[in-house]
Amino acid sequence: MEDVTYTLEFEKPLRELEKQLITLRQVSDESKVDVSSEIATIETKIEKTKREIYSNLTAWQRVQLSRHPKRPYSLDYIDLIFTDFEELHGDRRFREDAAIVGGPAFLDGEPVMVLGQQKGRNTRDNLKRNFGCPHPEGYRKAMRLMEMAEKFNMPVITFIDTPGAYPGIGAEERHVAEAIAVNIRDMSALKVPIVTVVIGEGGSGGALGMAVADEVMILENGYYSVISPEGCAAILWKDRAVAPKAADALKFSPTHLKKFGVVDRVISEPMGGAHRDYELAAKTLKEAIVDSLGKLKKKSTNKLLEDRYTKFRNLGEYADSAAEA
Fold this sequence. Notes:
This protein is α/β, with parallel strands linked by helices and 325 residues long. It folds into two domains: 9-56; 63-313, 2-enoyl-CoA Hydratase, Chain A, domain 1, CATH 3.90.226. It has 14 helices and seven strands. It has helices spanning 12-31, 36-54, 59-66, 74-81, 123-129, 136-151, 169-173, 176-188, 204-208, 229-236, 243-250, 254-259, 278-296, 301-313, and strands at residues 100-107, 110-117, 156-162, 194-203, 215-219, 223-225, 265-267. Strands 1, 2, 3, 4, 5, 6 and 7 form a seven-stranded mixed beta sheet that branches. Helix 9 links the parallel strand 4 and strand 5. The longest helix is centred in the N-terminal third of the chain and has 20 residues, at 12-31. The chain is globular and about 70 Å long. The mean pLDDT is 92.
């Protein structure tokens, strides 16, 4: 699954070493010359460089990784984590929205309702998926499936990966803000456990419309924010090029989100990002989901709803004075 042809700026020293390693192995295979010591030296350098790069990522570098074109998307995780997934379509009001996928599946033999925001791998697929930006009918479809899950007492699992809801004229005409608001309201009262994972980008209300959950988790190279760093830079600095500075100012890295209580758990990724090892990334994610659902299933419905309400009411608390603090 690893792709070395797409290289981020901060990854270039690592990619040069990887190219040297590939060249050495080719020389060894073609000439039958023993270069095992040189290969071992390069491999040691690669591992050291990986640790140096990926252990000290800035907020902007994590944003870049969250957008990596080879990063696993919702359907990739659904395929690796669940069995017998049956995708359902349409909001029963307007049309199908391919930017959101969802349907019933089994998680270790237990029925669940799984939903995810889906991006495309190529131009054709991205046009179909609208670059992962849902229309209002996508959110209405998601809520329809969550209500179905409640009816059949199935836990809900949602994967978040969107730069934001689609802001076009058509979406506004069909009331995208109202659709997101209804989802936030109705998810708050849903009588089954809800687990949300931000697997890549978590942009604004586009993410929140599927993220009112009992436990909100995030992969370590994802971000979850009220606005994209480019949007913030354009508004505050009048220059989208200041996006790296905006990313630092927004404090939306997983570490900050956990500290502020916006997310409940940060899930580790394979060294270098989830795109380097889909299977390991999915295994770690599945373990976190199973653990979370195991705890939530033990709660009564009243306790579940009470804790969910308290969780979101407590976000954004602040003190007016030192005495209050």
